[in-house]
Write a structure and sequence with these properties.
The complex is a heterodimer of chains A (110) and B (114).
Chain A lengths: L3 E4 L2 E5 L4 E7 L5 E7 L5 E7 L2 E5 L2 E6 L4 E6 L8 E8 L7 E3 L3 E6 L1
Parallel strand pairs in A: 2-11
Antiparallel strand pairs in A: 1-3, 3-8, 4-5, 4-9, 6-7, 7-8, 9-10, 9-11
Chain B lengths: L3 E4 L2 E4 L5 E7 L5 E8 L3 E8 L6 E2 L7 E3 L5 E6 L8 E8 L8 E3 L3 E5 L1
Parallel strand pairs in B: 2-11
Antiparallel strand pairs in B: 1-3, 3-8, 4-5, 4-9, 5-6, 7-8, 9-10, 9-11
Classes of the chains: A mainly beta (110), B mainly beta (114).
């Protein structure tokens, strides 16, 4: 079965609202990597977070291993935040492969 | 931040032709990866490598070969291109330092097979 599940699949916000994106995993975790992808663009790494909370500007990533989840919080959203957010699991299998979720498509309107 | 470049950025090929996609990284990362991204399928791993001279099959290797002649370069080869291989291809590199497999992606190559 699917090892990484992202929710919601899509999200529409008004500029200034906050967003909470979730990633749940069913296998053991070495770390979780969060990416941002603009339409037609490449993947930009936002966080590589094995556990706990990390901050970068308006973005916060929290990984709770016991609860098998990782979240990405976007505060005070802007139209430029629109795009797809992907989480990817780095498991403990030692294979150096990431297991990707299907992504959350975020649309922020002004 | 890791620098990963890909060439060409866009490619139109004919069915049955040979296509080579190239990737270069300048951060001395051990691991390199080739993915394809299609609507409805997300990102899928084709081949990857742990270092110069090594290639490993990913989740969808059929119809593709890979070559890692040096630490910096990793190529994806389509010997007999088919229309089903029309996609956007991404190369990525990762440090593999200790237990970290953080990956950095190149800009992508849009391949159309006619």
């Amino acid at each position: 079965g699917q090892q990484v599940q992202q929710s919601p699949a899509s999200l529409v916000l008004q500029e200034g609202e906050n967003a909470e994106l979730q990633c749940n995993f069913s296998t053991s975790l070495n770390s979780m990597q969060w990416f941002y992808q603009r339409p037609g663009g490449s993947l930009v790494s936002l966080f590589y977070n094995p556990s706990g909370t990390k901050h970068s500007g308006r973005l916060t990533s929290t990984t709770v291993i016991k609860e098998r989840r990782s979240s990405l919080h976007i505060s005070s959203s802007q139209t430029t935040d629109s795009g797809t957010y992907l989480c990817a699991l780095d498991d403990q299998g030692g294979s150096a492969k990431l297991i990707f979720g299907e992504g959350t498509k975020l649309t922020v309107s002004s | 931040e890791a620098a990963v470049t890909q060439s060409p950025r866009n490619k139109v090929a004919v069915t049955g032709g040979k296509v080579t996609l190239s990737c270069n990284q300048t951060n001395n990362h051990n691991n390199m990866y080739w993915y394809r991204q299609d609507t409805g399928h997300g990102l899928r791993l084709i081949h990857y490598s742990y270092g110069a001279g090594s290639t490993e099959k990913g989740d969808i290797p059929d119809g593709y070969k890979a070559s890692r002649p040096s630490q910096e370069n990793f190529s994806l080869i389509l010997e007999l291109a088919t229309p089903s291989q029309t996609s956007v291809y991404f190369c990525a590199s990762g440090g593999g330092t200790g237990t970290s497999y953080e990956q950095y992606f190149g800009p992508g190559t849009r391949l159309t097979v006619l």
